[in-house]
Amino acid sequence: MLLASIILHAVQPIRNERSTASIYHLLQGKRSAQTLQDAHMYGLTNLFGIYPKLSRDLFDKLAADLLENKIQVNKTPIPYFNGMAYQSQTDAFLYRLLLLLQMLSNQAHGEKRYIPVTDQGQVQYWVKQLYRQELTQLGNWRSSLYEELYGLLENLPEEQAGLFVDRISGYQHIGLTAAQLAVKYDLQEIDVPLYQTSTIHYFLNQVSANKALFPYLGTLIEQPKQQSNTITSTAHKTRMMLERGLTLDQIAAARGLSENTIKDHIVEMTWLEGRRLASRFIGEADAAVIMDCAEKTDTNKLKHIHAALNGKYNYFQIRMALALRNEQEVEA
Amino acid sequence: MKTDLQQALLKYYGYEQFRTGQLEILESVMQNRHTLGVLPTGTGKSVCYQLPAFMRSGQVIVVSPLLSLMEDQVKQLRAKGFKRVAALNSFLNYEDKQQVTRNLASYDLLYVSPEMLQNDYLISRLMQLKIQLFVVDEAHCISQWGKEFRTDYLRLAEVIRTLGSPPVLALTGTATPEVQTDIQHLLGDLEMEKHIYPMDRPNIAYFVQEVQDQQEKNETMLALLRKMQAPTIIYFSSRNMAESVAALIRINMPDMACAYYHGGMENEDRILIQQQFLAGQLQIICCTSAFGMGVDKEDVRLIIHYHLPNDKESFIQEVGRAGRDGKESVSVVLYSPGDWQIPVHLIEQDLPEQSSIQQLMRHLYQRVQAGMTDLPAYELIVQHIPIGETQWRFLLYQMEKHDIVKGNQLQYNAQTWKDFLEQIENLVGERKKHKLVQLQRMKEWIYTDTCRRRILFAHFQRTVRPASGRCCDNCGDTLKDWETVPVSAQHDAAGWREQLRFLLQQ
Ligand SMILES: Nc1ncnc2c1ncn2[C@@H]1O[C@H](COP(=O)(O)OP(=O)(O)OP(=O)(O)O)[C@@H](O)[C@H]1O
Ligand SMILES: [Mg+2]
Ligand SMILES: [Zn+2]
What we know:
Chain A is an all-alpha fold. Chain A has 19 helices and no strands. In chain A, helix 5 (83-108) crosses helix 6 (121-134) and helix 13 crosses helix 15 (259-273). The longest helix of chain A has 26 residues, at 83-108. Classes of the chains: A mainly alpha, B alpha/beta.
């Protein structure tokens, strides 16, 4: 049993000096000076934060049973972990990958009706954005991700590779739950997340060490300043001021730019990021009217749309609606 | 109007014809009358409020207790190209909730959980809309005589009035005349046009089998599964049993994929299991009553009740998952004489004991004395008083009714508190009695020797239609000559290499 083996492994150096609770904090990834210090002092940095969802009750019971020799466990080899380096990125990378694979697999069959494997708004937003930017490249994404993943999984034990792939949801195929994986691979259910974390740590390690070899998986790694990569930094400044609640003319005045330049920024961000900011400037109903008109008159020319709608909307609103249209197409 | 509606049905869904009752309900709704619609489970109630949302301006608000169903419907509508739809419920994270709430006017169809309607800010936003229709789905939940009494539903009348009394459509699949009257009353004594359709399903055959003990029950169940070889749902009254029987089935029938499902699982896992079942990756689901409502899989052939449900409504709803494609399907109840204790026990668990009510009131009184008039959250309460969440919500509603709680504040008045304590005992007693009567009716159904179809629906409607295939064991039907049509279960014996290739189409 993996968790038991990990506890026994961690207990050795710590044993006489610290309580078993310190191991719980270590595995769970508690950001306290004490826990971090323990990790370094006892050479356990690799195990830091590898099990954020570990239940305290469960841990206490298992640790007690182990230390009082109430249960015997077969020592399981401990797979690769590097918690200190990757624990803060593990979840984001995993869910981006799972949702991206689900999207690509369904998209390959033109299937739009599927329930996303994660509810996390940020992850969904990230995948949506990628979809928008890479719309014409999705075929490449599929084949390249396939190759990159295949190569990485080949180097893992068969079982661990299977545990990872069986969890993926895609076209007409739904991934297995931890309980189901435990049955299929004859494991304890509590060990399943550990193997999955190990796999992700291994991916992160390989990908960041050989960026050139894994260009696609590399994009999934959370960049510290992800936003400024996609929008120009001057637009980024505008966004921050908008988010603080400043109005268009206030921003223009504060930055010494024209209001039109600020509007350009907003259109740019809307095009890249969708409705998030846009709702402040154009309602969905109005946007729908404009999009409809653009479609019917088969034009993107602002002047034509402006005229066709009898001047009801200004040019900025029309540009926003057209930028949003881009987002509508991927909403499903 | 009929042709308009028919055209719209074709345009938005691609269906040529209305099913029984849909047109009648729609016509009433389109004329802005308050409407009560009772249509059997799985026959298409959603169309009755979705079409008006597509066809007319103004918002349609749908109150639905089924969070997962709500999400599912929104996603399906979006996938069909209908984007102006959203759901507001506790699943949403704060940011998304804000996003939807701020832009209410940009949606035509809004699903809302009853809990969300307790939020004053949301109500104030809703008041600014032009609501064309206010829908109460699964309306039986409003009646305390209905099977799934929800206290939040009880405040709907007030909400409807606050929103300027828009036309109301109440929909349900199972409602006795008693419950129908109650729905009308609790929605504010609305004058409603009633469209009640028989809820019996001619394509479902009913069998009851007595066994002596659990071992015999398991053997009978396995034999049945082997014979039918079809998508099956097995209902249990306990989570543990659902899990352990699922394991038993896996061991005995490795070629029939089986999993369990219950309310104690993480939401993410629940969605996966439900999806696997819909996709045909799973053949058998062992579950509690948490699974079912809203699951729209057309070829479920067999419903087994490993444990008895508490009342006929639950039973009819659960069996209603079968045969949505109209093909012959089967319900089998397995029971052993000792089984009756479980539901009696469950009924008692659902209602608060007088002693815990007294404890609770004492605790609240002490808080008031100490100057803390804020209503404490359930999580706090439960640290002091052994009380379930359903019990707490039940009491909370009663306290609001008695002016003990007002807008999240406790209000002390010796007389009202005393009255409350006296009356609540009666109320709890009455409710318990009612539930036992329901259970008794279920029991009579098990032991009857006349046609089960007739007895099952006796309290709901005057006549039943004849069965389209087998009727029931008491009518002399058996499953001996059941023709098995094995569904080819897609089994993933393939290794990870092949599966990855398939997923990414390489
Ligand atoms: N007129 C029709 N013709 C063909 N199929 C229809 C028609 N109306 C609805 N359906 C289909 O019937 C199925 C069940 O519909 P729906 O989910 O609305 O049922 P329901 O009455 O709400 O069921 P439940 O009681 O489980 O909530 C859906 O797949 C729906 O698309
Ligand atoms: Mg429904
Ligand atoms: Zn019969």
